[in-house]
Amino acid sequence: xxxxxGERPARREFYGIAEIADALGLARQLVTVWRRxxxxxxxxxxxxxxxGPIWSGHTIEPWIAQVRDRTPANGPLSATPDLALRxxxxxxxxxxxxxEPRVRAGALARALYSLGELVPAVRDCRDDELGGQLRELLxxxxxxxxxxxxxxxxxxxxxRAHAPAMLAAAGRVTELVGG
Length: 179
What we know:
Oligomer: single chain
Shape: globular
Structural class: mainly alpha
Number of helices: 9
Order of helices and strands: EHHEEHHHHHHH
Distance between the termini: 48 Å
Number of strands: 3
Strand content: 5-15%
């Protein structure tokens, strides 16, 4: 392995999502969400394979070191305002679709999926005030993820029953981030 003066050698030649998650001590789903959302300053992959993105050690290791520096004792990360606002916007979209007199099943399914994508990131956040409010915001999806059938009147009624609590939590999250 060639070492450029002043740089430390890479521990690995290549990293995928699993290797990055292992290096950070985080869930793979969280790293996938960060990559998909282009958040936390994660660099673009060096290549894409059929099995997923890959990064060279020289590309990703400096970023891993930065994330570790922001994570006290390798514990969970604090929820970011960006994550909080995305979750709030997606919640409001879902609730607005639930309030329509004629349910648009396709749009509702997409809104549920989009909001559900944030559940792993929120679950892995530190249990501080913002993290707690985000977990409350997504509680209906966290507890019942994948269990809603947008064509079922009973499931729609269950979703609509969660709407007031989700709106209240969205308001509290917005107040916390000053949005």
